[in-house]
């Protein structure tokens, strides 16, 4: 077997905030093979976005930030590279799509210019060739009338179209890994589906590995090969997406899946809610971080941190399949 | 090997304890530095010890040493976020406030009545170790006393003007921002016309009509602050008025007056107050300019402006301290108000508004 | 027949945007909520669902149409009368933190309604504690806190507590869970159900999530671009819905929330070059530019809501019945 495309090894991201140190990502290890799709699911504060940005190398060591562990893309540790080395990697090996398409686009530049600039910078294409390629890319991401759209400004496009442009920008230099951080959260339900379908088909067509980060379990289910569930900075469960959704083994994943209302359930059915609030990351609970909210927690959970063994970080993993999927 | 790899795996031991270990030494050094810097500044201020060029050098070195040791001491006592210039400003304003309040009971020289200063030297240079630490003017009046009494009128005028401007301008701005539509349009015309009149011309015009008394000058200066206050209050109110908590209050049945006072005012107040602090410094300068032009409080009653005006002609060349002493007071006070106001504004103002 | 708790007829809300143009936010929508009923309003952003919520509490009042709360007409009341009349109808909004005045403490926020109406009894503390407990908060811990010291879920509970102090008959919930964490959403939805039963409320529940709306509602109204396109009972909504737009919404739902029966049903959306603008909505049926069933008739003639039995109404020319 060849070396994996992405290897994340015991990654820790620690911020020094005015109110004390905060470990946003606490010892996460992942691997991703070429062409594979991985979903990262978690609530706000679970560290999923920080993880994505740390993998990308957007968050790196600085005055108030410490990153330990390793992120190897094709063998090169992204946090050991010089800023120039990282920049050369961005776009060509690894690219990112963010939640809000409007902030990813410069309002004073035309859509085509966004694309052709990066082509000319990374690929050294001529002005004409870059323009032709830009139109091709817009066509690739399903934008109708790409020639006309290339001459328009971002504010003239709808939210869904803008996100397509951002995806086209990310794809401009054929990255091997695309990190999509909540790519559809700012969009309407019907448009969300289009964008997710697009990402899925592009990943298959271009043989591109994808990391899909989302708070929404639905976004990730059925669109990823594997999934990692994060809670309070740690991965609590990972595995084949289908298995995790059908038979979650960590009580948190189980409770999260059960707490989403389902269409085929009767109206006014009581939702199995998770009690309590997500933890304060400046002062996380000791032991298993989910223990204070867990229905199955015992004394051991509150003192001893469970390690991620056999893809689940729990002293007492669930063994029953979820009723809804049975 | 890079720095990353050298970092401990569990970075729970920050660098603070190490710094604590050195603290006693740094503490002693910084206190010694502070004392030495004060001595250097005092010595250089006195004409007896050094020649003029050396005095400047020693004074500059003293100030530099004071900054270095002061911030070192502050960091030791209050942590790494210690902001020396801010606390210096606060200290200066407190000191000035105390001096102004208790001026009549302090052992100052004569500040007003020339009859009492007949026995004093005239145009004496500053000497910290004499009866007139900051020197005297042409009539032998004590400059320290005059600067403190000058601060009295300057501060009273500036603060009164800002309070008037804040109350009136803030109220108008909130009403305009909340009701909008025609109210806002009328207020817009009013503030724009106030802004369209050049402030100096407005002041000169008012000064020729009004008697130069503290109350009248404060009133005239308050006109300068109103447009800025109206704009800030209006903009902040418009920012908060559509917020959900205002909608919720209306749904509960709150009256407009209640929404303005209970829901909006507490949120508008902080940015307004921080602008008001900055405005005080602007008005101190404006008042000094008026006095300098002879349109403000008339001598011998001291203000910083008319004290600086005493340096007209060749006086400044022969006796620079006549101008430098009130000038330094003015500079430090304006600097301090600006700094404190800016700090407050950065913390509280949701959007900065140009004056 | 009993009087509806809340009834609105032919609501029209338009916002001028300058140069003589208007956003047609809501164009002739009628609804009624029976006592103890929950009406869900479902739609995507820009469909006018939040504008309807605001029009019901007269903030701003609709440009035309009427709103009746019980047997009291709200439209056309003077500001002073409206203040009291609409107080029996309360609103819960999307962003709970900014729904609370940042400079107040929880106990004052909850007591606000009584302070406004000049109620002043010795039982102030007891009443505050009682309502805080009713929404599942521990009075000891939260009473003295300010909004920024609360989590989103706690803040939303305080908003509900504040609304309950008014002893409302109708509660309008405008996307009450969409800014909350997934694990907290279910708590708030359950709380709303329990509160409704305990305080005998009628609910208008506005949201964009089909499954959430279906779960909490008795009836659901689906909106598209300022019009109501389908009204149907929530039970088996995913099987019964016939309007092409409702079907599109259902098929957009992620697999995890769908039922097996909905999976087979594939709705092909016509790839639209542009989503229609509410400044200049399409003639006839407003969904026709994206509708797979659209014909010439849809452009010429606006489909009206028609009854197709069992409390189910649909506004479409082409659905086979």
List keywords for this structure.
A: 326 residues, Rossmann fold, six-stranded mixed β-sheet, four-stranded antiparallel β-sheet, 12 helices, 33% helix, C: 321 residues, alpha/beta, eight-stranded mixed β-sheet, 31% helix, 22% strand
What does this structure look like?
The complex is a heterotrimer of chains A (326), B (355) and C (321). Chain A has 326 residues and is an alpha/beta fold. Chain A has 12 helices and 10 strands. Chain A has helices spanning 48-56, 83-89, 101-104, 111-123, 127-140, 146-150, 159-171, 189-206, 217-220, 241-246, 251-259, 299-303; strands at residues 6-17, 20-32, 37-41, 65-73, 76-77, 94-97, 177-181, 209-214, 226-231, 234-240. With 355 residues, chain B is mostly helical. With 321 residues, chain C is an alpha/beta fold. Helix content of chain C is 31%, strand content 22%. In chain C, the strands form 2 sheets. In chain C, strands 6-7-8-3-9-10-12-11 form an 8-stranded mixed β-sheet, with helices on both faces. In chain C, strands 2-1-4-5 form a 4-stranded antiparallel β-sheet. In chain C, helix 7 links the parallel strand 7 (170-174) and strand 8. The two termini of chain C are 29 Å apart. Residues 260-265 of chain C have low confidence and may be disordered. Chains A and C meet through helix 8, helix 9 and helix 11 of A and helix 7, helix 8, helix 10 and helix 11 of C.
Low confidence ranges of chain A: none
What assembly state would you assign to the polypeptide chains in this entry? heterotrimer
Order of helices and strands of chain B: HHHHHHHHHHHHHH
**Spatial ordering of strands, largest sheet of chain A:** 6-7-8-3-9-10
Radius of gyration of chain B from CA coordinates: 25 Å
Distance between the termini of chain A: 35 Å
| Count of the separate structural domains of chain B | 2
The CATH topology of the largest domain in chain B is MetI-like fold
> Strand count, sense and closure of the main sheet of chain B?
none
- What is the count of helical runs of chain A? 12
- Overall 3D geometry of chain A? globular
What is the name of the CATH architecture of the largest domain in chain B? Orthogonal Bundle
Unreliably modeled segments of chain B: 1-21, 350-355
Strand content range of chain A? 15-25%
Largest sheet data of chain A = 6 strands, mixed
* Contiguous helical run count of chain B: 14
Give the termini separation of chain B: 53 Å
Query: What name does CATH use for the topology of the domain at 1-93 and 206-326 in chain A?
Result: Rossmann fold
Helicity range of chain A:
25-40%
Q: How much strand of chain B?
A: under 5%
Question: Structural class of the helices, strands and pairings of chain B?
Answer: mainly alpha
């Amino acid at each position: 077997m060849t070396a994996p495309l992405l290897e994340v090894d015991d990654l820790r991201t620690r911020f020094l905030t005015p109110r004390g140190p905060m470990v946003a990502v606490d010892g996460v290890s992942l691997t991703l093979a070429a062409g594979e799709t991985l979903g990262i699911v978690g609530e706000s504060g679970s560290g999923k976005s920080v993880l994505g940005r740390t993998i990308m190398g957007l968050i790196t060591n600085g005055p108030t930030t410490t990153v330990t562990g390793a992120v190897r893309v094709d063998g090169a540790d992204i946090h050991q590279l010089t800023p120039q080395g990282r920049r050369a990697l961005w776009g060509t090996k690894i690219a990112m799509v963010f939640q809000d398409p409007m902030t990813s686009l410069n309002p004073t530049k035309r859509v085509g210019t966004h694309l052709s600039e990066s082509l000319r910078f990374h690929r050294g294409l001529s002005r004409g060739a870059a323009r032709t390629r830009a139109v091709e890319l817009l066509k690739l991401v399903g934008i109708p009338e790409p020639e006309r759209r290339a001459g328009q400004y971002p504010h003239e496009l709808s939210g869904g179209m803008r996100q397509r442009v951002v995806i086209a920008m990310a794809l401009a230099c054929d990255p091997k890994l695309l990190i999509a951080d909540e790519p559809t959260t700012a969009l309407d339900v019907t448009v969300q589906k289009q964008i997710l379908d697009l990402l899925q088909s592009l990943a298959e067509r271009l043989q591109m590995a994808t990391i899909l980060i989302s708070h929404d379990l639905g976004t990730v289910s059925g669109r990823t090969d594997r999934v990692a569930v994060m809670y309070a900075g740690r991965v609590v469960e990972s595995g084949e997406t289908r298995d995790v959704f059908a038979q979650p083994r960590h009580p948190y994943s189980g409770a999260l899946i059960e707490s989403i209302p389902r269409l085929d359930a009767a109206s006014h059915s009581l939702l199995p809610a998770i009690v309590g609030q997500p933890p304060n990351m400046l002062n996380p609970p000791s032991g298993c971080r989910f223990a204070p909210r867990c229905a199955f927690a015992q004394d051991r959970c509150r003192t001893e941190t469970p390690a991620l063994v056999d893809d689940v970080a729990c002293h007492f993993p669930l063994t029953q399949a979820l009723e809804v999927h049975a | 090997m890079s720095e990353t790899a050298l970092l401990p795996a569990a970075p729970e031991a920050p660098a603070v304890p190490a710094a604590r270990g050195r603290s006693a030494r740094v503490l002693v050094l910084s206190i010694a530095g502070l004392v030495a810097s004060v001595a250097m500044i005092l010595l250089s201020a006195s004409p007896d010890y050094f020649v003029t060029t050396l005095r400047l050098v020693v004074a500059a070195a003293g100030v530099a040493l004071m900054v270095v040791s002061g911030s070192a001491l502050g960091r030791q006592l209050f942590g790494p976020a210690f902001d020396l210039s801010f606390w210096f400003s606060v200290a200066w304003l407190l000191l000035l406030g105390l001096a102004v309040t208790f001026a009549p009971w302090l052992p100052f020289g004569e500040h007003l009545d020339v009859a009492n200063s007949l026995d004093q030297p005239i145009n004496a240079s500053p000497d910290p170790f004499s009866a007139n630490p900051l020197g005297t003017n042409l009539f032998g009046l004590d400059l320290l006393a005059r600067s403190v009494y000058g601060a009295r009128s300057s501060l009273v005028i500036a603060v009164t003007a800002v309070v008037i401007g804040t109350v009136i301008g803030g109220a108008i701005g909130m009403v305009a921002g909340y009701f909008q539509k025609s109210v806002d349009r009328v207020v817009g015309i009013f503030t724009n016309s106030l802004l369209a009149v050049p402030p100096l011309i407005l002041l000169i015009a008012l000064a020729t009509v009004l008697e130069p008394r503290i109350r009248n000058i404060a009133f005239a200066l308050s006109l300068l602050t109103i447009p800025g206050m109206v704009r800030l209050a209006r903009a902040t109110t418009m920012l908060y008025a559509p917020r959900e908590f205002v909608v919720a209050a209306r749904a509960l049945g709150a009256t407009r007056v209640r929404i303005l006072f209970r829901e909006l005012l507490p949120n508008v107040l902080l940015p307004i107050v921080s602008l008001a602090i900055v405005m005080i410094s602007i008005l101190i300068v404006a008042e000094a300019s008026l006095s300098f032009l002879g349109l403000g409080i008339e001598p011998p009653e001291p203000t910083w402006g008319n004290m600086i005006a005493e340096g007209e002609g060749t006086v400044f060349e022969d006796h620079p301290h006549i101008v430098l002493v009130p000038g330094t007071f003015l500079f430090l006070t304006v600097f301090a108000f600006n700094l404190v106001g800016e700090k407050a504004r950065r913390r509280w103002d949701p959007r900065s508004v140009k004056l | 027949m009993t009087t509806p708790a809340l009834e609105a007829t032919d609501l029209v809300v338009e916002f001028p945007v300058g140069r003589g143009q208007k956003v047609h936010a809501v164009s002739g929508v009628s609804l009624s909520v029976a006592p103890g009923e929950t009406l869900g309003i479902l739609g995507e952003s820009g469909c006018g669902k939040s504008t309807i919520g605001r029009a019901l509490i007269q903030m701003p009042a609709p440009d035309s149409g009427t709103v009746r709360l019980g047997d009291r007409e709200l439209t056309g009341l003077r500001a002073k009368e409206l203040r009291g009349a609409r107080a029996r109808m309360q609103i819960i909004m999307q962003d709970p933190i900014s729904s609370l005045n940042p400079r107040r403490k929880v106990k004052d926020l909850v007591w606000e309604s009584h302070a406004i109406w000049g109620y002043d009894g010795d039982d102030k503390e007891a009443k505050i504690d009682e309502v805080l407990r009713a929404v599942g908060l521990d009075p000891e811990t939260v009473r003295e806190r300010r909004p920024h010291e609360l989590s989103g879920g706690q803040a939303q509970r305080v908003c509900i507590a504040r609304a309950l102090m008014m002893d409302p008959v109708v509660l309008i919930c405008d996307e009450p869970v969409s800014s909350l964490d997934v694990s907290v959403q279910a708590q708030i939805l359950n709380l709303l159900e329990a509160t409704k039963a305990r305080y005998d409320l009628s609910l208008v529940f506005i949201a964009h999530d089909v499954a959430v709306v279906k779960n909490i509602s008795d009836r659901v109204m689906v909106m598209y671009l300022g019009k109501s396109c389908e009204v149907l009972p929530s039970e088996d909504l995913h099987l019964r819905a016939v309007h092409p737009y409702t079907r599109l919404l259902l098929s957009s739902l992620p697999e995890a929330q769908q039922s097996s029966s909905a999976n087979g049903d594939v709705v092909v959306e016509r790839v639209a070059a542009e989503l229609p603008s509410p400044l200049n909505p399409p003639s006839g049926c407003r969904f026709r530019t994206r509708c797979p069933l659209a014909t010439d008739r849809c452009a010429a003639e606006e489909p009206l809501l028609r009854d197709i039995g069992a409390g189910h109404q649909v506004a479409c020319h082409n659905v086979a019945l």
